[in-house]
Amino acid sequence: MQILDGQLTSRLIRDELKLKVAQLITEGKKTPHLAAVLIGNNGASETYVAAKVKACSEIGFKSSLIKLEDSISENKLIQLIADLNADIDVDGILVQLPLPKHISDEKIINAIDPSKDVDGFHPINIGRLVQGLPAFVPATPHGIMLLLEHYRIDTSGMHAVIVGRSNIVGRPMSILLSGNTNPGNCTVTLCHSRTRDLPSFCRQADILVAALGKPEFVTADMVKPGAIVIDVGITRLPDASKKSGFALRGDVHFQEVAPKCSFITPVPGGVGPMTIAALMKNTFAACSNKN
């Protein structure tokens, strides 16, 4: 069993981007600028956005953090996005999800200029992804592909089973793994909450991607020997033994499952850092399109 180390791989990608940004500065070209919009006081969202802003600083990107009260109206948020779209210095825009219930995720995502949609959620980018055209790929699936690529895992011909059909992870992951690429060229099964006898599908997987948001849902009896297991989930569970008062758990019961795997991602330190690395790559690409 080998750990797919997202921390290490993310650091290598960030170091590469840092060198590229230094080269841009030397050549007198524009440096990437990411604008992050955070609404309300969701602790997990604040942590995620802080990590993204920190990554920008380490690489040499400019970043703007725009914090808003959760009482902001949908129209005012759309106007803010319009202003960011018009700002020629801003290359990438991300609006941290989830949003307050009175604001439509769909309307906000659609309001972002596709050329600045570094989260890769806009229908135009998703449509281009489906057609195999250049596009901003959603950061988490993109990060997973970068991780498989770093460890030189040849996925061609493998059966990939994805548990979870969200537009953020599950669906784009199925497109990427089924594409004529390497990593890719998999036969893909996309499972979800209505799948009958889910464990039997999981046991068929050469690559199992767990992205359903249920802590330690995937147990050893659901994984075939030698499988590659990608754990996308991350849930905070109360833990009095921790200084923070909580522990982080993935969708996979790591201690049970790890001994059966050829490769597995840990939580934390697996997919999470790779999501941020992919976001940074998307932001750099958005700036490069201008340069």
Tell me what the structure shows:
With 291 residues, the chain is an alpha/beta fold. It has two domains: 29-113, 3-Layer(aba) Sandwich (Rossmann fold), CATH 3.40.50.10860; 139-272, Rossmann fold, CATH 3.40.50.720. Helix content is 40%, strand content 16%. The chain is built from ten helices and eleven strands. The protein has helices at residues 6-26, 43-59, 74-86, 105-111, 123-130, 139-150, 170-178, 198-202, 254-257, 271-290; strands spanning 2-3, 33-39, 62-68, 92-95, 159-163, 187-191, 207-210, 228-231, 235-238, 246-249, 263-264. The protein has a six-stranded parallel sheet with strand order 1-11-8-7-5-6. A three-stranded parallel sheet has the order 3-2-4, with helices on both faces. A two-stranded antiparallel sheet has the order 9-10. Strand 9 and strand 10 form a beta hairpin. Helix 2 crosses helix 10 and helix 6 (139-150) packs across helix 10. It is globular and about 50 Å long. The N and C termini lie far apart (43 Å). The mean pLDDT is 95.
Labels describing this entry:
alpha/beta; 291 residues; three-stranded parallel sheet; six-stranded parallel sheet; Rossmann fold
**What is the CATH class designation of the largest domain?**
Alpha Beta
Name given to the CATH homologous superfamily of the largest domain: NAD(P)-binding Rossmann-like Domain
Summed up, the helix count is: 10
CATH names the topology of the largest domain as Rossmann fold
pLDDT averaged over residues? 95
User: How many domain regions?
Assistant: 2
Number of strands: 11
Shape: globular
Structural class: alpha/beta
**Radius of gyration in whole Å, from Cα?**
19 Å
Distance between the termini: 43 Å
Largest sheet: 6 strands, parallel
Please provide the ordered H/E string of secondary-structure elements: EHEHEHEHHHEHEHEEEEHEH
Helix content percent band: 25-40%
Stretches where pLDDT is under 50 for at least 5 consecutive residues are none
Give the amount of beta strand, in percent: 15-25%
Second rung of CATH, namely the architecture of the largest domain: 3-Layer(aba) Sandwich
User: Which strand order do you get reading across the main beta sheet?
Assistant: 1-11-8-7-5-6
